[in-house]
Amino acid sequence: MRYYSLELTPKGASTPSRVWTSYPGGVYDPQALEIEFDMPIMPATDSTAVTITLSGIALKDLTQAQQFAGMTLTLKGGMKAGFPLVNPAQAGILVQGEVFQSFGNWEGTEMTLDFVVYPSIYTIENPGNMVLNWKSGQALGDALRQTLETAYPNTPLSINTSADLVNSFDSPHYCATIEQLADFVRQYSTTNFNNPVTMAFQQGGITVNDATYTPKTVQLDFFDLIGQPTWIEVKKMVMKLVLRGDLTIGSIITMPKGLQNAPGIVTTTSDSLPSSEKYKSSFQGTFTVTALRHIGVFRASDAGSWATIVQASANG
User: Fold this and answer.
1) What predicted TM-score, i.e. pTM, was given to this entire model?
2) Three-state secondary-structure class, residue 304
3) For residue 254, how far is the Cα from the chain centroid?
């Protein structure tokens, strides 16, 4: 069954003040509120706002919608047990960030609450304290950890960079936003070390990876796919999967080999080529995820309305 959990936590608090979920107490609620979202997950150099809409909210939340601005929003999603092909382990945090705007609307009998969420709390108008104090002989990863822990003290960090990214001189750099910092780090590491370092907000934290990092490989199943993948550029493809929170930018995915050995599948001959070909994907091998987009309309009946769109580059 489709699963979501939207939590709002006030600044300085450790527990949410509002929780809307389709599985309260771990039990599916057929009367859960309708939720719609469109959330691109991209490298920090291109990070953008995400939008989330709740329908059927309480009147007190509609009339005081502005109270949620500035809170931390966490949206978890995926699938929970209920259907034979569902994998609950794929559910997880889809996005986490600060509510930039929250507003309610009442039209006819429909009451909605909208959120505009930014993963980063800093902008050009509201700059952050992002000083990259990169000392001579210090690894870039260590310098970035000091910078990010100062700017985002309560945000989990995952830094996976080579110890060889070291300068023989001091390289201090100031940035107003994480977009500026990510752009500087990527360009500098590419130009001087031929080892591009990418940064991204994902799964409730900040990840920093370079080209030497090899994450755990995720094996896709044929049942995860919604339609066939499509080439969009040379060695770059896009595909639609059942909504999942276990993929991140940088994840290595292995494409499914098909259904030929799955229980219940009828073996066909070469004479029935069109029908046999539809049971396997024309894309094989491993790919590296470069961008994600989570889209959801909770009560829509088609599978494509609760999906994760993955952009990935071929390895090798």
Assistant:
1) 0.85
2) helix
3) 18
